Amino acid sequence: MQQYILRRLLMMPLLLLGVVTVAFFLSHVTKGDPLSSVVSERQMNNKVVVEAARKRWGLDRSLPDQYRIYLGNLVTGDLGTSFRTKRGVGEDIADRLPATLELVVAAMIVGTGCGIGLGVLAAHKRNEAADHGARFFALIGSSIPVFWSGLILLYLFSVQLGWLPGAGRLDARTAAPPFVTGMFTVDALIAGDLQTFLQALGHLILPAFVLGWAVMGIISRLVRASMLDVLNQDYVLTARAKGAAELRVLLHHALRNALIPTLTIIGYSFAYLITGAVLTEAIFSWPGIGSYAVESARALDYPAIVGVTIIGALAFLLANLVTDVAYALANPKIKLG
Amino acid sequence: MGGGIVKKTRRMALTGSVFAVALAAGGWLAQTGGIIASAEAAGSDTLVIARDMDLDSLDPARAFCDTCQIYISSVYQRLVDLAPDNKTIVPALATKWEINADQTQFTFHLDPKATFSDGSPVEAKDVKWSWLRLKHMKSGPSFMMDGVTAIETPDAHTVVVKLDAPNSEFLGVLTAPYTGVTNSDVAMQHGANDSDKADSTDTAESWFLQNSAGGGPFVLESYRPNDELRLKRNDNYWGKKAAVGEIVIKQTKDAVSQAQMLESGAADIAMQIDPDTAKNISSGDVVIKTVPSFNFVYVAVSPGAKNLPVKLTPKVREAIGYAIDYEGTINLTLGGDGNLQPAPIPNGFPGTDNLPMPVHDVAKAEALLKEAGVADGFTLDAYFPNINVYGVDLSTMMQKVQQDLSKVKIKLNLNPVTFSVWREHINGDGIPVTAVFYAPDYYGSGQYVQYFAMMKGTAWSKRAGAANDPSVLNPKEGDLLAKALAASGDKRDGYFHEIALEIIKDRVIIPVVSPQLVLAYRKNVEGVRYSACCNLPTAELSLK
């Protein structure tokens, strides 16, 4: 297995080079003037200002030249400077990615935890009220658009009931905890600041639930289907005949095997959420990588677009690898090679 | 039977446990909410502003945007300031100044008490360095130093500026935040320079994103793009210190979110509440004031755009102007909370008194089109940025314009696009009809003439296609501008009035609405006002 993992890791730079090349040229052929975020609308007809900006941002060079310089910088770990934020793209991503990771990890905990629980419950209570209830709840999660559920829940729990804080990662008056991981809940705990931790956690609940709900629906349906298959297998009947407690039969004997096909979805969901959390981030003013990608695309911020694409590609490649490895670990019959 | 009882008991136990967990979670949530609420109440020295930030830099010589005006005027001081009447120029770093007879030489005397935030004195060399850097950066606000031929510093507290031509508005230009003075010694240590190659050799922008080097009432505390900008009080400020200890500008994209933050107390001021959203704010803790602004939204017609189906002659352009229902558009887009504006110079600026208001007259528009020989109608493409600006949704506004023009048989094909695509169109073949907006940098009409007039070299003469159709140019406007800049007082205003009438006659720029500005803030906030140069003067804000 170690060899397999090493081989996959060694393949990654090649795959990333392909992704970078496609992203670089695609973003440059997109219609629009990239100077829109560098030169203000009023000065866009000022030749001196426009030429100075083109020169400063390397847009006066030919496309192959720009590509060559970009690759050269990339090798040294330099992702370029964002046209919009005027900071290094690496710095921007380092700032934004932890916010998304914090949200996605929380969403995955909510989504997989509740999804598996609901799936097991639905399979166990097949065609009973609990099954219908769990499926209905799951169906809502996977059917309602995130922007709608986000707005409704925000309005209900924050504006009307006042149980949960509104948008953002922290209250505006609270300063972010000292940077360690960039995840406010973790950093607040490291700093021993319980109040900031609780506040960060409070801010995390709604967006994590909204994002996790969509995944919850898919996972619960998959777990239910797999559990129904497994529950009819001989070894489950044998376990029951031997007098094993129902909970043990469900969780120890049935769920372990039923989870194998679900692992693929969990792996993909993680990568998908990292790149696809944009709507949730927009609704909850969550300054993550998704909103960064959208802002960059709108402004034709080439360095940022390519930088985010690299991160997205990396997330998918790593998620694939982790899923494959987890698959093999969960089922020893599966051989990686 | 016994099994049934066990099952029921288990079910009850399970239900009870779930209920207990739900209650505990509810209690915890309420407690968390309590912690948040008390944090808001306790943070009485921090003032939160909800705003959709358009910051493009924090470098005073490169930044150029509405939020930049707030930031730079908070952190860097100018030689002169604009009084609350938005007209009178008052001393700031300069205690007094002299202007020569032909308005080509300005001598400023700096206040010897003035210091930067690090305690070092503000000297003439810093003023010279800051302005030369601004000029040589070739960036958005560099035009403020256009015409400056020399800056002399006879002593540490005297600055003499020489211009290549008379400019009665130069003092007004200096109220713009972008002319703020930077601590040159500190900035140079971090890669800044004022050489004529500064546009390619100055490397201080990234440093300015996390640090400030000014002498204003606040200093930069921290900045996270698209998240928040934190300013803290400059405790070394040489003048009257700011009343609030910290200002946080929190990125909040839309008006509804800003209103929610304001009502919940998460924000103290919301800066981009549109009139419609303002009407839905019911909290008794929120003060809503509507004031006229100097911002405006306009439609532009480009006679020189390529591939036009008919020639957009002055008569056709005049017909388009008459066909637009201005009042109806203001009602539709802003619920009536906007003002008519005759020329692309804001109401209340020099020369705008008694200008003829735009008139909606379909019969006159039809007659003009008939005279122009295009009474049967034609089709025009309209590309415009798909944005909501100052409460006006440009798509909604253009749909109304489309409806109005259809009544005189002009079909408008609407193409809402991103800003970058719009720029490519307008810089390429030109756009027959578009819609954009403008906000002032300082109190003065010259900036508008130099941008909108059909004089050679102005932004809009180029966009209107003067290169393809030189008949668009109006030579009178250049002569009148030179006279206005050489005059002062009523005489200057008279020339600007004449220019405004000429620009109206050009019929290239058609102002549609000057949106009123909604000042929305919590009732414990004092000192909220709109400034023509600086948007929101933060130094005047306080919390009761």
Automatic annotation (TrEMBL), chain A:
Biological process according to GO: transmembrane transport
Q: How does it sit in the membrane?
A: Multi-pass membrane protein
Keywords associated with the record: Cell membrane, Membrane, Transmembrane, Transmembrane helix, Transport
- What GO CC terms are in its UniProt record? plasma membrane
Q: Which InterPro entries match?
A: BPD_transp_1_N, MetI-like, MetI-like_sf
Any idea where the ABC transmembrane type-1 domain is?
97-323
Transmembrane feature ranges: 103-124, 136-157, 204-223, 258-284, 304-330
Could you tell me the superkingdom of the organism this chain comes from? Answer: Bacteria
List locations, semicolon-separated: Cell membrane
Q: Name one Pfam family in it.
A: BPD_transp_1_N
Does the entry feature the keyword Transmembrane, yes or no?
Answer: yes
Which family does the similarity line name? Belongs to the binding-protein-dependent transport system permease family.
Q: What is this protein called?
A: Peptide/nickel transport system permease protein
Q: Which species is the source of this protein?
A: Tistlia consotensis USBA 355
UniProtKB/TrEMBL annotation, chain B:
Q: Name one Pfam family in it.
A: SBP_bac_5
Q: Which residues form the Solute-binding protein family domain?
A: 88-452
Q: What is the lineage of its organism?
A: Bacteria, Pseudomonadati, Pseudomonadota, Alphaproteobacteria, Rhodospirillales
Question: This chain belongs to which protein, by name?
Answer: Peptide/nickel transport system substrate-binding protein
Q: Which domain of life is it from?
A: Bacteria
- Organism source for this protein? Tistlia consotensis USBA 355
The reply on keyword Metal-binding is: no
One annotated GO molecular function is:
peptide transmembrane transporter activity
Q: Name one GO biological process term.
A: peptide transport
Q: Which InterPro entries does this chain map to? A: Peptide/Ni-bd (IPR030678), SBP_5 (IPR039424), SBP_5_dom (IPR000914)
The cellular component terms of Gene Ontology attached to this UniProt record, alphabetical and capped at eight, are:
ATP-binding cassette (ABC) transporter complex; outer membrane-bounded periplasmic space
